[in-house]
Amino acid sequence: MGMQEPKSPKIAVSACLLGENVRYNGGHCNHRLLQSVSKHIEVVPICPEVGIGLGTPRPTIRLVREKGKIHLIEPVSGNDLTDSMLSWSELQSDALMHQKISGIVLKKDSPSCGIERVKVYENNNPQRDGQGLFAMVFTNLNPQIPAIEEGRLNDPLQLENFFARVGMMNRWWQRDEEGWTTSSLQQFHAEHKLLLQSRSPNAPAELGRLISQSNEDHIEKLALKYITAAQMHMNTIVKKKYVAGALRRAVGRLPNTISGTIRQQVHGWIDGYVAGTAPRMAPIAVIDQMFVMAGLEHLPWKRLFQPFDMSSGIFAKV
Ligand code: SF4
Fold first, then answer.
1. Domain total for the chain?
2. Which domain holds residue 296?
3. Quick one: how far is CA 279 from the chain centroid?
4. Atom 6 of ligand 1, nearest CA residue
5. Residue at 208 is within a domain
6. In this structure, are 200 and 277 located in the same domain?
7. Which of 208, 234, 260 is the C-terminal boundary of a domain?
8. Residues 250, 300 within the same domain
9. Residue with the nearest Cα to atom 5 of ligand 1?
10. What is the pLDDT along the chain (318 residues), one digit of tens a residue?
11. What is the pTM of this model?
């Protein structure tokens, strides 16, 4: 079986976050964090507003609710851009999936790119309850692809979780290229059990059942169902107690040569991490070292904390 490390994941990014001058006011945001990880990923810039033919600079556009329906409007001209944005978004979503993107980073607050809490105007009163049209179309069509607004990447744990999801998606694409079999899907699941458990304790069992109880004839469809459900479980705020559960399970996987005293010490550090008296890094470094000393490459462990190597800047130093 080819277990070679997959290629760098492709991530679609709102072009203005990359320093491209595509915003309505001609400026850009140039996200520092994206630059720092850019050597670990392949970036695919997209700009929905330039995509539908709007110029730079351009008049502002906004979401407007009329009779319960949302429109994308250019207030100065009164132009309704809804249909052209929706059809461009469908085409572009397909194009991005052809490129096998493993994640998407979108600009918050934008009537095209914002994922949540985008202003919607009703009788000139804005309410923050909308979604940018492109973001809405893309995430509805492709719920398995991790999507995040750039603001959330400023939180180290959210950054790490996003890239853990991206890593999982990227490995899925690689297996998809090789062609799925029931056993390769089971293996994919086994490899990600600790990671899944660390986000959602019921995920390993639920997803295991999804595979074993499926009467899906087409393994490709089952693999898609699987990754969609797995990514839903991973789309969460990371909780210490769940991470601790996965760490304890990893301790249970250490070879018998590791003494009970050492195991107890590690459990003590895990308790400290949950209580906030020890950094997460303490138990992780020790468990990692014990796997190395035992000469054991334990894939589920590797998937739990090394979606990328620890020096990549993606691994949260907490
Ligand atoms: S937020 Fe989206 S539509 Fe607006 S400039 Fe950035 S990429 Fe383009």
1. 3
2. 240-312
3. 24
4. 16
5. yes
6. no
7. 234
8. yes
9. 23
10. 445 556 889 999 999 988 777 777 776 656 666 666 777 888 899 999 999 999 888 999 999 999 999 999 999 999 999 999 999 999 999 999 999 999 999 999 999 999 999 999 999 899 999 999 999 999 999 999 999 999 998 888 898 899 999 999 999 999 999 999 999 999 999 999 999 999 999 999 999 999 998 887 799 999 999 999 999 999 999 999 999 999 999 999 888 888 889 899 999 999 999 999 999 888 998 898 888 888 888 889 988 876 555 556 666 665
11. 0.91
Q: Whose CA is nearest to atom 8 of ligand 1?
A: 47
Question: Which residues does ligand 1 sit against, CB inside 6 Å?
Answer: 14-16, 22-23, 47-49, 107, 110, 112-113
2 part of a folded domain: no
Q: Identify the domain boundary among 106, 136, 153.
A: 153
The rounded Å distance from CA 79 to ligand 1 centre is 18
- Any domain includes 75: yes
Q: Which two tokens stand for residue 251?
A: 């301790």
Residues 146, 209, single domain; the answer is: no
Is residue 318 in some structural domain? no
Statement to judge: residues 144 and 64 lie in one domain: yes
